[in-house]
Structures are given as C-alpha cells and as structure tokens.
Amino acid sequence: MTSVAVVGSQWGDEGKGKVVDLLTEGADLVVRFQGGNNAGHTLVVGSETYALHLVPSGILHQGKRALVGNGVVVDPDVLIEEMDALAARGVAITPENFTVSSSAHVIMPYHRLLDSARESPLPSSSPGGRLVIGTTGRGIGPCYEDKASRQGLRMGDLLLPDRFRERARTAIMEKNALFTGLYGLPETRLSDLEALRERWAARLAPFIGDARKILWDALEEGRNVLFEGAQGSQLDIDHGTYPYVTSSTTLSGGICGGSGASPGTLDRVLGLVKAYTTRVGEGPFPTEVFGTHGDRLREAGREYGTTTGRPRRCGHLDAVAVRTAVALSGITSLAVTKLDVLRGLGPLKIAESYLLDGQTIRHMPPDIHDLALCEPVYREYGGFEEDISGARSLADLPSGARKYLDGLEDLCGAPLGLVSVGPERGETVLLEKFF
Ligand code: GDP
Ligand code: IMO
Ligand code: MG
Description:
By secondary structure, the protein is of the alpha/beta class. The protein has twelve helices and 20 strands. 6-O-phosphoryl inosine monophosphate (IMO) binds near residues 141 and 247.
C-alpha cells in the first residue's frame, strides 16, 4: 500500500493533470481534496486532449476509483457538464467509480455573482478602493467564506429539500443586501435556488456519498492512493503571496482536512515544478520577465489558461519559491515539467536566492511587503538547442539540459522523481517508482 500526493510548488499550472494521469496507472484511488473548478488540468492521451476542472484526472483509467473530497468546492452545473462531456467521449462515470463527498460545499450562483462583482468596477456612486486579485470568477472565494462562516450548503443538503430551503434562505439574506445595496444587482430568489436543487439532486444523487469512508476502506485494504492537488504552493491561503492567493490550503497538509486522511497517510509527496515560472492573475512574481524572452516562453509553452484562457505571466525558474514549497509540503521528490519548452531559449537563469536589505535569503518571506523589496540573485546556464521530446532516460538528454536539471535539483533542495519532456503520457523520463 502506498499513498502519493501530487502538489504544485509554484503558482499553479505546473502540469499536475499530466502527471496524475500518468501515475494513476499504479493507483487504485485518485482523490481531489481542495479547490474547485478554478483548477484546469490538461491531459493529452494520443490525439485526444482533456481539460478537467473538477473530476479527478485519474478518471481516464478504467478500473480506478475517483473521489471529490470534502475540501473541494463543487459547482454542480460544471460537474454535470464535465461528467456528460466525459461520458460522450466514452469515459464511463458511474457511482461505482466516482463519488463526491456529501460534505463538499456547493458553489451557488450567488457565489459566482459575488466573485465577479468584487472584481469589477463599482457603480460610480460607491466609494472606491478595492482589491482586484484576478480570480477565475468561479465563485471559489465566496463559497469558502460561507463554509468558514457556517452559512454554506453542502452536497448532502441537495438531497434534503427542507434543510436546503432553510439554509439557502439564511445564506441569501446578507447576499441580497449586498447585491441590491453596494453592487446594484438584482436579488437572488429562493424559489430559483430550490428549482436548481431539484435539478442537481435528480442528476447527482447517486454520486453523493461518504467519500472519506471509501478512502478509509481503501487504505485499510492496502490500496494505492493518489492525491491530486490543485493550484500551487504560492497560491496557498496561509503561506502564499496573500492576498493574491486562492481560498484553500494547496499544500500537502490540506489533504487531511480536505479528504479525511490522517497525517501519517502519505508515503511520498511529489512536487510539480514547471522548468520556468508562470502566474495567472495579479500579485507579486519576483522572476517575471517582460519583453521578448517572456513572450517567447509564453508562445513556446502555450501559456494560456486552461480555465479562463488568460495569457499567463512568464519568467525564470525561482528556486526560492520551490525550496519554500519543499519545506511547506514535505516534498520528497520533484517532477520537472515542460523542460522541452526551454529548447533554444538559452541562456537560462534560475533564481538561487533573494537579496533583502543586503541580506541573502533562501526562502520566500511570508509577507508581500518584504517580497516586493527582494531582488532575485540568478545563476546562469547555457541551455540547449536539441529536440528532447524523445528522451526517456537522463542519458538521452543533451548536456545543456542535464546541467540545467542538475542546477535545479541542487538549488530546489529535493531529488528529481520524473522529468516531463512533452504533454503526452509517454513523453516522460521516470526516475522513481511511485507505486
Ligand atoms: P495543471 O493545472 O498543473 O494540471 O497544468 P495545466 O494543464 O493548466 O497546464 C499545463 C500545460 O502544459 C497543459 O497544456 C499540458 O498539456 C502541458 N504540459 C504538461 N507537461 C508538459 C511537458 O512536459 N511539455 C509540454 N510541452 N507541455 C506540457
Ligand atoms: P490549477 O489547478 C493557476 C489563481 C487565479 C487568481 C487566484 C485566485 O490549474 O493549477 P480563485 O478563482 O481561486 O479565487 O483565484 O488564484 N488560480 C490559479 N492559477 N492555476 C490554477 O489552478 C489556479 N486556480 C486559481 O488566477 O490569481
Ligand atoms: Mg491548470
């Protein structure tokens, strides 16, 4: 029995979907434990590309079971759409292979509305001075807020009409005051929410259950479990670049609260590292590169968001950020992705430390006030010109690529577990046996 976690060690979009799909081969159960459809995980299987937002990336493998844990926030419309789209492409989704925790919170239409209202300009009559984060607009933050303030609706509530009505009535009281007052938007009507509940329950009831019991049983039976993280370490609500973060715990520690696994469960934590850095939305990004090199990275890596289509900001690899993720998530090995994208883009740079008030620091400062004062200190590498997509062992890589990987491993402070050299399952150098 082995349990492996896959977590992002940067600002998300490190290639978690590809790696989870690849590792699912040896797993029995794949579990999402946080985030929601702000995630966009891309899987390429032969000529087919799948972009998944809520259903765990392990679903493409027959005979495996997928769970959406209690820590995930679920937009039922998005879930239904994703399940239908997968079914239309021949991926079987049944109550036997897919369960959503009855304790997972529901993203309601008013959460999406609040998310976008906060990110849009206020009506001219209102006082200004707001924070724009560049969220995905999916209602993630407002849903987690309601969870924490105990006004949330959970997936299990969809099956209890009376309770749903009472909780929804309470939840919309404050929202409607905000909508009609501050934001100049129409009220949410309880009857509309009840109609949604009925439709959602009719489709999803067979899939809603006690996901943690399924997880506990699997662990007891000695099954192999893969935990699929969303977002990345620097977007963590506590340890990321607050307030430019998402609203959940994106670290391996989030697995316990978000799935019901106990702290001793994990055998390995695989930290995903894109061979350079990207970020979507606002917030600090010390190694960001503007101009030609940034544009070349964006085009070569097709760095446009899977969820929103927004161009991703691009920059050099930041070993300070990854090293911080190694400490936060107990990363036991690194999965380096998109190394192939760096072909012909040398010389390449890796930030090995920051200078803050004349002092060398090797971990991200906890506050963005200090981060803004940090100057990255770079180490330079020659790079490589060869096509590396056919490499299946380190020996297949040209020396320029090897030197860059050696530098990355040394500076980030964890050994390499795999190197991805293309989007497809097989385009991978596997250095560790995970299951
Ligand atoms: P995730 O959110 O961490 O799952 O990552 P995304 O799916 O949002 O973004 C990663 C993108 O890079 C996707 O389009 C993947 O198909 C692609 N990708 C993953 N690994 C590689 C790789 O090694 N090389 C290249 N060229 N593309 C990759
Ligand atoms: P995956 O799982 C990259 C970013 C948003 C925004 C901030 C808050 O595909 O790696 P939110 O909608 O969560 O309130 O937005 O977090 N963000 C992501 N960036 N990849 C993701 O997921 C992200 N999920 C959220 O762009 O800056
Ligand atoms: Mg993504």
